[in-house]
Design goal:
Two copies of one chain form a homodimer.
Chain A lengths: L4 H14 L7 H8 L3 H13 L3 E4 L5 E4 L8 H8 L21 H18 L18 H11 L1
Antiparallel strand pairs in A: 1-2
The first copy, chain A, binds a DNA duplex (30 and 30 nucleotides) through α3.
DNA sequence: GCAATTCTGGACCTTGACATCCACTTTGAC
DNA sequence: GTCAAAGTGGATGTCAAGGTCCAGAATTGC
């Protein structure tokens, strides 16, 4: 019961990126979030197509959020990798339930609606740990190198 | 995102049985709930082992609820076929999160807790449609036959 | 221009959920 | 006792999600 593994990975990566606006490479994010690097690559591609993150190729490239973390909700991230399916029609296809869900499916859909509401009203910015944002140890080093070059 | 197919099947079957205390055979329940008969058989076995339903073999056998529908919650049924996993430890295994979930997993677990609460407080009795309990057309016939024999 | 870096996208493999099938046991009716 | 009805449990099949791998394209530094 609940969120798929892929959604969990996508959320970890998104929060990880929210904690470091400069951006990070896929291996860095993978290290921080403990997500299989090669699979994370796929997940980030999905987030990219959905406009949640932006990838930049080549030396010094990597991923960063496409918008400020405060303007990306948890639901945005979830929907990007696995569209949320509300229950709109009776799964049994009963004629009697054409426009009105039976009590069971009404109840299930209510729960789904509540979760959706909670996730829509939470932004990535709220999920970054102030004292210890999710990032690898060498992130600061990398950041410093970038500053030196500039 | 959400409940597995198996859970959906189990709930349909449970509500179906709640609508007819006399009991029904697997093919009957399958017909009513549009669940593949052979798979429903497995699901019902699971519900049986969990003490939600009782199966009776032989001619005139079938399944019925092991307790009154008002004393079986939606959560009981879900937990019977797929134990609800609350998030207790940080999935990343971070030492810093040993006893306190990070904001992300706290948020996810909160949502899960809310859903769990909603499902725990809803009984099967509340989900039976008064005017049209989920049951096949020949259920009444079957019921009548039983009454005649008695 | 060349080499190193990093994302992109397609092909492929693996695993578990979903589903089917069948031999067996239990039960009730005659 | 025999037969048909009905659940039980194990073996097996199927398919999509999860995961790996690699060739190619873009970018940067020299």
């Amino acid at each position: 019961m609940f969120l798929s593994q892929t959604v969990e990975y996508a959320l970890r990566a998104a929060v990880c990126l929210a904690g470091q606006p400069e951006g990070q490479t896929t291996p860095e994010i993978a290290e921080t979030t403990k997500v299989p690097p090669s699979y994370l690559s796929k997940v980030l591609q999905g987030l990219g197509r959905a406009g949640i993150v932006e990838g930049k190729r080549g030396v010094g490239g990597g991923f960063k959020l496409a918008r400020p973390a405060a303007r990306i909700s948890v639901l945005d991230v979830i929907a990007a990798v696995e569209p949320v399916q509300r229950i709109e029609r009776c799964p049994l296809g009963l004629a009697a339930h054409a426009d009105k869900l039976c009590p069971l499916h009404k109840k299930l859909d209510d729960a789904l609606a509540e979760v959706e509401r909670a996730f829509a009203s939470t932004t990535l910015a709220e999920l970054v740990e102030p004292d210890q944002p999710l990032q690898p140890l060498d992130a600061l080093v990398r950041k410093r190198r970038g500053a030196e070059r500039a």
